[in-house]
Specification:
Two copies of one chain form a homodimer.
Chain A (H helix, E strand, L loop, with lengths): L16 H20 L6 E5 L2 E5 L3 H5 L2 H6 L2 H5 L2 H5 L37 E4 L2 H10 L2 E3 L5 E2 L5 E5 L6 E10 L3 E6 L2 E7 L8 E3 L5 E2 H6 L1 E3 L4 E3 L9 E2 L5 E10 L12 E5 L4 E4 L5 H10 L30 H5 L24 E2 L47 H5 L33 E2 L7 E5 L24 E5 L20
Chain A binds a DNA duplex (24 and 24 nucleotides) through helix 1, strand 5 and helix 8.
Chain lengths: 503, 503
DNA sequence: CAGATTATCACCTACGTGAGAAGT
DNA sequence: ATACTTCTCACGTAGGTGATAATC
């Protein structure tokens, strides 16, 4: 029946503009009041290798995938947020006592294993409520040849670092399974075995290395990271395959610079709600709408309430000559169409600042603009092995890929450490590095130098506050602490960022 | 007679818009063909403590000040550039063999003194031809409460660094004399003694510390530095007094980080043509026009040839209620006024890249856009004493200030080192630090950490090429090598950039 | 044909710039 | 009235965003 209504999204070329727009508009009305429920926040806190998930309904996290994706979008979007919240909390700050408070006593992590690299580190996904919204629908991330940023932005709150020690913070993306997907009849289905994963580049936060005090001062934002589908990318962006699922991982390494960084001292974490499918065009319209509603750069696509006529139609200029007049003549259409809103746009929010790079907005939903600079570090590194992930990790995407268990041995040649909070680093966990492509460092564009933040030896006011936490539930991790063990091998410079490669 | 035509510039409030515009337009026609003479470049190269000035007419540098500022602008602008050029050179690159060439043998600097901190360092002001144009007219720099960038941009080419050592690069601004000026009858005249100079902040290049290879890879741009007249500035901008003259100084310090930076190992240079008067509004219209013609951000004020009507008049919204309708109604004025030029704007130039911060254009005249990131470093440092400058240093601004010699003792408590290429660092050069305000570190906005560029140990292709140079002329220095001696005292952190000071 | 990718566009954010009006 | 200083604005640059049409 409605199987034919929108066959994937590629009906675009046939189901033309207006129909599609109306459809999205209808759905948007439903989405809107959902988006208003912004203030109730879940909190997922990690202490050492422990995972603390607060306010998330356990059942929801474990079971919903298939059913949620199959149910018509509208019916399901109205309920989950409220019901998911066990602890309303209603604190002004997401994580009270986390940033800048002095008076909360440290509490020893409830579960320590000798393998922990740094058991005192506690992290939190800053904007996890927004991530959760996307995750519920099945997050998609656009990848382009020139590189596209992620949205929502990957932002981490850190605690428990040594304020005076220096750390390097990085993110990489690992395949979730070994399947290729397609979006069929409004759901993601497996279509085959995955393409080979390109050498997994690392995105090193531009401030790295910086002191623990620096990293804990405010959340650490990775908004400048870009994803590309260009296997030959020379800009240091992270290379992904379209229609494949990925999981961002966050690494904390205490090191004074890249060369002294020891791969076996990685503290690695991941958040389920940040998993996504890489796409070259959005498939799920609800995802599109969620992006439009929350990404400030996409404001131009929001219906601002009323009276505002839609944005001009435009015509790709690829038509080879005839009728190109439409493009060049369409200028007079824009009369007083500008500056309609202006005032009400970017005010009101000035709470959580984030460590990174002045420049661009990098705001998720309600996030303040703040000031900071960043530096380039596209550079050489290497030979990092990916770790194996268990199947069906993302509870909200169907674990329908059958390829992983059988065929993944060459990609995931080692015992699972995923969902395992501390892998015995000195024991049997072993990641042969020979057959794996070297991991390249991913930095922005053309920089050559690494960036090292001086620690200044300042005792900042951000004094390692620890709040008391509920006992951990290893069964419902939103954040996973992963131990790299010997997964990462020698450091070998690669050609990325060498002089002359970029201009 | 024409004394009254434009009394300074503050006739603006009386000699209203149109008259002023017409006047500027007339002058612009004269200025235009002057601006076309872009390709003939002078070269000022510094080797160790030696200054090499090529292609600059000696007389012109020594004498012109008063007379040039008094002559009507038009008559003088057409001649100087051509006549100043002794060595047309006409090389594609400003400094052949400087960037990225391997085959030029190092030549020992012709004059070495034991006091040299690093006699191998050679620097060059990249865009000195543009600076010279401004300097000829008497450069003005706008300062505002929120901070304003400099234009032209201070850009330095470096040579002779140890590729593997780390260096910190900084800029500060020192008062040229102890006078306050005003612009009267189209010339700058002294009106009194200078205001006290605020604690002289340092602008540390965001890439600092970085390897010598990094700094030599391309020119080092300080375009992000901002000037302010707000004595209470909390953003780390450099604080200046309006209507006072300043001289930028460039410092190279070999150090792994800010704390190991030794103040007595500064290699300090300055270029006469970069001196300027700080103003809150432009006084000399020729300066205004030169800025408009060369600063890409001011393109909106250029006459693009023909047919284009002037930009809309606008009305400051400070009027307290009545008639504010003009502002909000003026939207329909803008019809098809957009995207007139579009294509011809930013193409064509892709020669000299510059080390700094992707983000914004930071192009002077013909400079390529390039890619690089930067990082924030507003931070603490301090207790740096300014060095004394000789009077009447800027040959193109009248040395009419009488205050300097008598009253400057507290500001310039030490023997001159300016115009002196190497001060005897271990000898009698002594800069008492007690009575002087601490020098604060100037960084962009809110950052807390210092930034350290890893050296990577890479031997880059920028292999310290030295070209053969004519013998130095200490009598006509465009660049001055300054030895700090013991001018810089202990490093004491200040409050700038401490957590909580900025949000 | 259907699926997937790409180039181009209008429209944003962010911010640098001098003009002009208003404040001091 | 004069000599500045400050605020707001139109108009640039640079670049992120999804829509769309064309292409692969």
């Amino acid at each position: 029946m409605d199987v034919q209504v929108i066959r994937g999204m590629y009906g675009i070329n046939r189901i033309k503009g207006e129909d599609y727009k109306l459809k999205r508009k209808r759905e948007k009305l439903k989405l809107l009041d959902h988006n208003e429920n912004e203030k109730e926040k879940k909190e997922n806190i990690v202490v050492g290798n422990k995972i603390e998930s607060r306010g998330v309904d356990e059942k929801l996290l474990k079971s919903p995938p298939k059913s949620m994706l199959k149910t018509p979008p509208k019916s399901m979007l109205k309920t989950p947020p409220k019901s998911m919240l066990k602890t309303p909390k209603s604190q002004g700050q997401q994580y009270p006592g986390f940033m800048g408070s002095h008076d909360v006593k440290p509490r020893p992590p409830p579960h320590q294993t000798p393998q922990d690299k740094d058991k005192n580190i506690r992290i939190k996904l800053e904007n996890n409520d927004l991530w959760q919204k996307f995750h519920t629908l099945g997050t998609e991330m656009i990848i382009t040849k020139t590189g596209r940023r992620m949205f929502p932005i990957f932002k981490i709150l850190l605690e428990g670092l040594d304020p005076h020690a220096k750390y390097i913070l990085l993110v990489d993306l690992v395949p979730i399974d070994d399947c290729r997907y397609k979006y069929h009849n409004s759901e993601w289905v497996v279509t085959g075995k995955a393409e080979p994963h390109m050498p997994g580049r690392l995105y090193i936060h531009p401030d790295s290395p910086a002191s623990g005090a620096h990293w804990m001062k405010q959340s650490v934002s990775f908004h400048k990271m870009k994803l590309t589908n260009n296997n030959l990318d020379q800009n240091g962006h992270i290379i992904l395959n379209s229609m494949h699922k990925y999981q961002p991982r966050f690494h904390v390494v205490q090191a004074n610079d890249i060369f002294t960084m020891r791969w076996n001292s990685f503290n690695t974490y991941s958040f389920e709600e940040t998993s996504f499918i890489a796409v070259t065009a959005y498939q799920n319209e609800q995802i599109t709408q969620l992006k439009i509603d929350n990404n400030p750069f996409a404001k131009g696509f929001r219906d601002n309430g009323m009276g505002r006529r839609d944005r001009l139609p435009h015509f790709g200029k690829r038509m080879i000559g005839l009728e190109s007049s439409i493009t060049s003549d369409s200028e007079e259409d824009k009369e007083g169409d500008k500056k309609r809103v202006r005032a009400s746009v970017s005010a009101s929010e000035s709470s959580s600042a984030s460590i990174e790079t002045k420049d661009k907005p990098h705001t998720d939903t309600p996030t303040s603009t703040y000031k900071e600079l960043s530096r380039p570090i596209s550079n050489s590194l290497s030979a990092l092995n990916r770790m194996r992930n268990q199947t069906s990790r993302n509870p909200l995407l169907p674990p329908s890929c059958q390829y992983f268990p059988q065929s993944s041995s060459s990609y995931f040649p080692s015992p699972d450490v995923y969902y395992q909070h501390a892998a015995p680093s000195g024991t049997s966990v072993n990641y042969p590095t020979s057959s794996l492509p070297a991991c390249q460092l991913s930095g922005q564009s053309s920089a050559v130098s690494s960036s090292i933040s001086g620690s200044f030896g300042l005792t900042t006011s951000t004094a390692l506050a620890h709040t008391t936490l509920p006992p951990s539930h290893t069964s419902l991790p939103s954040c996973n602490y992963m131990q790299a063990g010997q997964a990462y091998s020698a450091i070998t410079p690669n050609v990325m960022g060498m002089p002359g490669h970029f201009q």
